[in-house]
Amino acid sequence: MRSADRRWFVLVGGLVVLGLLLGVVLVTGEETPDRLTGADATAPTSSSAPSSSTSAVARDDITSTTIGPVSRSSTTTTTITRPSVTVPGLDDYELDIDEDAPGVVARPAPAEIDVDEPPPSTIAPPPWAASTRVTAGGHLGTDVGCARDVSVASLDRFLADRVGPVLGWDYQHVYRLGGDRYLWIFQDAFVDHSGTVDTLGSARFVHNAALVQQGACFQLLHGGSADRPDAFEVGDGSADLRTKWYWPMGGELVDGQLWVFWAEMIKDPYDPDPPDGLGWHPQRTFLASYDAATLRRTSFFLAPNSGVAPIYGYAVSSDSSYTYLFGNTFEQNLLSEGGFWNGPHSATDMWLARVPRGRLTATPDYRTADGWSPNPADAVPIVSRFWAENPMQPRYLDGQWVAATAVDGYWGDHLAVDVAPHAWGPWTTVQYSPLPPRNGDPTMNTYHAQPLPWRDGYGSVLITVSNNARDMRRDAWNAPYRYRPMVIYAPYQATPAPPTPAPTTTLPTSTSTTSSTSTSTSTTTSSTSTSTTSTSTSTTSLPVSSTTSTSTTSTSSTSTSTSSTSTTSTSTTPP
């Protein structure tokens, strides 16, 4: 080819390539960020919130989801109109959902991790291997070390690291075992006894695991073997990793037996898109007992109220007379309730039942608008607030009812601390503050705040809080430190005194009775004498003085002196 022809060919080819590049730029107009490619580039198709008439998605209808992917670019923003939610007692609360991180983007419930059996290792065994053995309770036990002490800082530092074979876990529930012993039961733990794995995706997965705390030292407990770990609680034996499992709820120590309520969880046939929650739901409530010394399971059966709307036993605590079963639906698949924007959702209601102290197998009574009833249909919520969840975790600590709540659960980022004179209230919010994840990591969220069963030396409440990455597979799978609980504290706050009832006045039509007590020369005797006045047209009920003195009692024919039993007084004991 001649040189002139070659130059002409190169020039034409260059113009063709340049034209193709300009065409691509004109068509796309912008560049898609790497973080929004593939499965991560999803968002609601509508730029406004669905109406409240959105129908709920059937659990068995895998095609019912209508939210599809939408392309989101670096120069395009999607505005979502959000309803403002007022929380009783918290005037400054407003629903604030970040559209770039709406609740949980991805939290998979993996089946058995497909890990090839490794060849014999030449690496020295991890330090916990020598302590791994089958315990007297039938679990695989491993000593995983000690915190410096049981202060907030020491416990937080201990849980921030890998805990022996456990790379990460969440939803910690802590129960008294007596003395300085406590049982921690976690949901969804990733376990590696070899010590050679450093990612969640390479570890074994179990739906619950436990720590026994004695003083500041801990022992891991789970079922199965070191090579094939299983859950601490396997239920009736029909559980599996993919479709059915058991998650711990509240519990109480009674006469050497630890009683724990368990929610039987069922995997839904679909996974909701954000912000519509998680693809599973509770189906039944079970009650199990364990020997406090060995943690051997001694019974497992359906709870006296085995329903889940709500789960009575979601949290459990006792005063001197009763054991109280707090109730919540624990419904986190908001698509089944019409979607996130179709709130407030069922888990924003807290209910209450009670049994005589320690009698957890007894049929409960339920809190009604004005007392207690054996009929669960008479129950009313004791607290209703927030939008997606009100996951209160109450405890009776040193004569005070106190509760910690991660506001709106996965969807929120604040902590509420409430106190009350009685289990049923009135609950008063004494702290409402931001609840950032450990180190303020923007990829992470916080949820499940639960008070520990003891206070520190200053009377502060120690609170455990779960951490995870909003997109767990993307941001925590290879960074397990993002999937570990933290410990914070809330300073002591006194319980406000209940309001004093005001005097009441009634107007009968024909007769009157005056109940009064002299503050200087007379005192009221028992209500054994009455007289009727035919001419009076009004009645006044006066408050009874707390001061008494020796006196005479009036016996006028036109008045009655009785002891006051006004129904407007406030009882300080359970009715």
Helix/strand/pairing category: mainly beta
Order of helices and strands: HEEHEEEEEEEEEEEEEEEEEEEEEHEEE
Low-confidence stretches: 21-55, 60-92, 509-575
Q: Beta-strand level of the residues, as a percent range?
A: 25-35%
| Number of extended strands | 26
Description of the structure:
- This protein is mainly β.
- It has three helices and 26 strands.
- It has helices spanning 3-28, 152-160, 472-475; strands at residues 133-134, 140-146, 166-178, 181-191, 204-214, 217-224, 229-230, 244-254, 257-267, 280-291, 297-302, 311-318, 322-328, 349-356, 365-367, 372-373, 383-384, 393-397, 400-406, 414-420, 428-434, 444-455, 461-469, 486-490, 505-506, 539-540.
- The strands form six sheets. Strands 1, 2, 3, 4, 5, 6 and 7 form a seven-stranded antiparallel β-sheet that branches.
- The longest helix has 26 residues, at 3-28.
- The relative contact order is 0.10.
Helix and strand arrangement:
Layout: H1 3-28, E1 133-134, E2 140-146, H2 152-160, E3 166-178, E4 181-191, E5 204-214, E6 217-224, E7 229-230, E8 244-254, E9 257-267, E10 280-291, E11 297-302, E12 311-318, E13 322-328, E14 349-356, E15 365-367, E16 372-373, E17 383-384, E18 393-397, E19 400-406, E20 414-420, E21 428-434, E22 444-455, E23 461-469, H3 472-475, E24 486-490, E25 505-506, E26 539-540
Antiparallel strand pairs: 1-2, 2-6, 3-4, 4-5, 5-6, 6-7, 8-9, 9-10, 10-11, 12-13, 13-14, 14-15, 14-17, 15-16, 18-19, 19-20, 20-21, 22-23, 23-24, 25-26
